[in-house]
Specification:
With 115 residues, the chain is mainly α. It has one domain. The chain contains five helices and no strands.
């Protein structure tokens, strides 16, 4: 399977952006669980596409509401992600959530992240 531009962008920029903005990102654990689900081989292709699209919206610099707007910057990102998440919720497993919690802990401790 060929890697799409969005997949490449998400893989390259997701964790650096999350680390920079962790304190301001609501529902960071769900965001990271969505990342792990999107790149899990067991996740169906349609669900992967939906999640990668939502994650790309999070990492790309063009936004409806720019991320630097205090208090509102990530609201559009979270709305897109939560909509996508609700569509593919059954494909986000407890393992994805466990890995997300561990990753958030490492990010807060500034430890290396393994994608």
């Amino acid at each position: 399977m060929a890697v799409t531009a969005d997949e490449f962008t998400v893989k390259e920029t997701f964790f650096p952006k999350l680390a920079r903005s962790l304190a301001r990102v609501p529902l960071a654990d769900e965001l990271v669980a969505a990342y792990y689900a999107a790149f899990d081989r067991a996740t169906p292709l349609k669900a992967k596409g939906i999640l990668i699209g939502a994650l790309a919206y999070f990492v790309l610099p063009v936004d409806t509401i720019p991320d630097f707007v205090l208090g509102l910057g990530f609201t559009d990102d979270m709305a897109v992600l939560l909509t996508a998440f609700n569509v593919v919720r059954t494909h986000v497993t407890e393992d994805h959530r466990r890995r997300a919690r561990e990753t958030i802990t490492r990010l807060r401790q500034r430890a290396p992240i393994s994608a």
